[in-house]
């Protein structure tokens, strides 16, 4: 006997889709402006922040795609979990992009050491200020949905980080203008590149944890087993698996061995309630087995 439900999940992110759309348009449009300004002004700080913003565009795009496909039915019949992991794959692409940007800026910065460099501080300051304003607008848009949707929250945190990048560009422009030394542009660029690389590694670890089907962050499988084992009528727990399908969607399966005479329906309902209320797992597939059942011993892995 198993317990579960269909895949018609409702997502809070869909409610705030318009916020993601407006933020995506603002960030994507400014990315083009900043990239052109960085190339024409010779500012590594601008180029590094443009690379960081490119990763934000991917992240926002992934969030939009996730809200679009969350409720889409599978016409092939082969995607039994739907297409929810598209967000995870898009996040993996963002990681690769961010690491590439960090490596490029690092190589360029090292190549500039000891060589005279000319940086146009006027465009740096103008573009930096405009970028700061756009990021603040995007933050205000996304903040309204960040508390309700992990998808929107992820996009919100991306823009928070990019806002810091804009502050770095402004600081670089002011320092170069005040000192006449272009080395400050290189220093700020390296700082932004290091920041992007660290964030990429942290995001990459999360992506690998999901793809590797690790237990969700903050969920201890031993505690899950203990709580299920405390359900009246349950004698033993085995074949317990908990993993993350995509952000905000955790899944679990388990076999519950019951005492002789225990009502399997009551055990199933109580166990599902534990998974839902204690661990926030709405999709738990639970197999209830009487103590005399021995079929699971035939499983080879």
Secondary-structure blueprint of this entry?
Layout: H1 12-15, H2 17-41, H3 44-69, H4 86-112, H5 121-146, H6 150-179, H7 183-211, H8 221-229, E1 234-246, E2 249-258, H9 264-279, E3 283-290
Parallel strand pairs: 2-3
Antiparallel strand pairs: 1-2
Helix pairs in contact: 2-3, 2-5, 3-4, 3-6, 3-7, 4-7, 5-6, 6-7
Description:
Helix 2 (17-41) runs antiparallel to helix 3 (44-69) and helix 2 runs antiparallel to helix 5 (121-146). The chain has a three-stranded mixed sheet with strand order 1-2-3. The chain folds into two domains: 12-211, Alpha-lytic protease prodomain-like, CATH 1.20.1510; 221-298, Alpha-Beta Plaits, CATH 3.30.70. By secondary structure, it is mainly α. It is built from nine helices and three strands. The chain has helices at residues 12-15, 17-41, 44-69, 86-112, 121-146, 150-179, 183-211, 221-229, 264-279, and strands at residues 234-246, 249-258, 283-290.
Keywords, please?
membrane; disordered N terminus; mainly alpha; zinc ion transmembrane transporter activity; 3 strands; Alpha-lytic protease prodomain-like; transport; Cation_efflux_TM; Alpha-Beta Plaits; 10% strand; single chain; Cation transporter; three-stranded mixed sheet
Structural class: mainly alpha
> Alpha-carbon distance between the termini?
21 Å
What is the percent of helical residues? 55-70%
CATH architecture of the largest domain: Up-down Bundle
Supply the CATH class of the largest domain: Mainly Alpha
Biggest sheet overview: 3 strands, mixed
Count every helix, treating DSSP H or I runs of 4 or more residues as helices. 9
- Strands ordered across the widest β-sheet: 1-2-3
Q: What is the string of SSEs from the N terminus onward?
A: HHHHHHHHEEHE
Q: How many separate domains?
A: 2
Total beta-strand segments: 3
| Shape label | elongated
